[in-house]
Amino acid sequence: MPRPHRIRLVATLLVGGAMASVAGGALARRFGGSEVVDRDDPRLDVRLAAPGVVRGSVSVGLMRYPIAKPFCENIEEIALRDGADALVMDMSSLSKATPKAGMYAMKRLRVLPLRRIALLRGSRFMRAFAAAVLTLGRFPEFRFFDSEDTAVQWAGARRSS
What is the pLDDT of residues 26-80, one digit of tens each? Predict the structure, then answer.
């Protein structure tokens, strides 16, 4: 016959395990752990902001790979379809990207023939990090902005030669 303290221990472990499982599932759902995101997800905002300028932003708590993939695909599709060579990217939610999502996005950006990248908002740390990554990655001309209108104007401006 099992001892009472063992029954309490087993019951406590079972309840604790169930609570951890429920909490883990809630966290996974909240942060997009196992979610499938398609290209029409309303949290993905990718559009042509001006002739030759694609603007992208994402409204998520944590930028994970399942969100980064369709986001990047949308940017590529619009850029290639409309012949865009400039990108305006809102860094607000990108500052909360997982390493896998960030690496994927950087690889996808390399595919596009971008002339200019305008980065909106972002903390001081994110701006320094982005500058280092874009410089080391030999990306084209880039700048940081707080105003979306100014960013779109700069990105769309053509050099006079």
Answer: 555 555 455 668 888 899 999 999 999 999 999 988 889 999 999 999 999 999 9
Is residue 138 domain-shared with residue 93, that is, in the same domain? yes
What are 9's strand-pairing partners? none
- Kind of pairing, strands 116-120 and 141-145? parallel
Which is it for strands 86-90 and 116-120: parallel, antiparallel or unpaired?
parallel
Q: Over the stretch 11-31, which tens digit does the pLDDT of each residue have?
A: 455 555 545 444 444 555 555
The tokens describing 131, both together, are 């500058």
Reported in sequence order, the residue ranges of 20-115 that DSSP labels E, i.e. its strands, are 44-50, 53-58, 86-90
- Tell me the three state secondary structure of residue 118: strand
The residue segments making up the domain with residue 26 are: 1-30
Q: For residue 36, is it within any domain? A: no
H or E, element range at 140: none
